[in-house]
Amino acid sequence: MSQVSTIELGHGLRVSRIGFGGMALSHVYGPTDPSEARSTLHHALDSGVTFIDTADVYGQPRPGTTGPAGTNEELIAEVLRTRRDEVQLATKFGITGKIGDQPGDTPTRGDRDYVRAACEASLRRLGTDVIDLYYLHRRQLDQPIEETVGAMAELVHEGKVRHLGLSEVTGDELRAAAAVHPISAVQSEWSIWSRDVERHVVPAAIEVGSGFVPYSPLGRGFLTGTLTKESVLSSMRKGQPRFDENFEANGAVVDVVRAVADQVAVSPAQVALAWLLEQGKRMGLPVAPIPGTRRPARVDENARADRLTLTDEHMSMLDRAADLVTGGRNLTFNGPQWISAGRE
């Protein structure tokens, strides 16, 4: 029996209320085992976590690869082969190189030819004829977003894509895009310690009828209280201010999350996810966070957050934790405009 309820994001897109972030199965958080990754994905589906998120840029690049790796999509395709009808499948395009390739200037494209070519490549790698939710991963800043979304809308009309999404857009960019075609979901980092989207992006999403898909809802693992400074050195967190020189200082945030978790006898991860679900409810916004993991036990732990209710006192405690955060959320191998807060 499914452990997770469903929620309608925007414009008829219904997904599991807790999703699964496929990037966790990639090399950016350390070495991976494809067999274990497949087992974790199957377990997620068995548990009712059916909203699976990937991107063409995720995965270990093959030797000689110059564009998006595509290997995470290929991994997920192995699970889709027998269970496609159980999955709400999301993938993304727009980043044209490997993650972190060009510090401060990660290349992006949003022109019509690239939109179409990227979609065809993802369909081929995923082994499917339709993508449920197709995101612009990062926009090309000198390309009008209306033109990119117009090209994406053509894919909907052709039946290759069911719903459109945008990642890390500003409130104004979202409004401009929604004037061209309905945007079913916005994906940006949002968590107890990353709340800048609440100022501009969340109000715009409510205005245009988009749901919200928070990525890194557990603060890239930090909010679980399980990371050590040594473990950070083997992943993409290395060198990021929150995880590097401010690691110990930000432990104060985890202390608050852990205090609430102890009061309600659950894990810090479950508290962090339940906070997002409750915050979305209070703001009138459908929310479906996509925590990632490599272990089935963590899938179950995350799924149980769907049934956790936090009190007003708990929410107030967690709200105050945001004031304890030291360091910005942007990955330092990218420029400040890589995230919405850097353009607003």
Please give a structural write-up.
The structure is a single chain. It is built from eleven helices and nine strands. With 344 residues, the protein is α/β, with parallel strands linked by helices. The chain has a domain of 236 residues: TIM Barrel (Alpha-Beta Barrel). The strands form two sheets. A seven-stranded parallel β-sheet has the order 3-4-5-6-7-8-9. A two-stranded antiparallel ribbon has the order 1-2. Helix 1 links the parallel strand 3 and strand 4. The model has no long low-confidence stretch (mean pLDDT 93).
Helix and strand succession?
A: EEEHEHEHEHEHEHEHHHHH
Distance between the termini: 44 Å
Number of strands: 9
What is the 3D form?
globular
CATH uppermost class of the domain at 6-220 and 276-296: Alpha Beta
Strand content: 5-15%
Secondary structure topology:
Layout: E1 6-8, E2 14-16, E3 20-21, H1 34-46, E4 51-53, H2 71-83, E5 88-93, H3 112-126, E6 131-136, H4 145-157, E7 161-167, H5 171-178, E8 185-189, H6 201-208, E9 211-215, H7 229-232, H8 251-264, H9 268-283, H10 296-303, H11 312-321
Parallel strand pairs: 3-4, 4-5, 5-6, 6-7, 7-8, 8-9
Antiparallel strand pairs: 1-2
Helix pairs in contact: 1-2, 3-4, 5-6, 8-9, 8-11
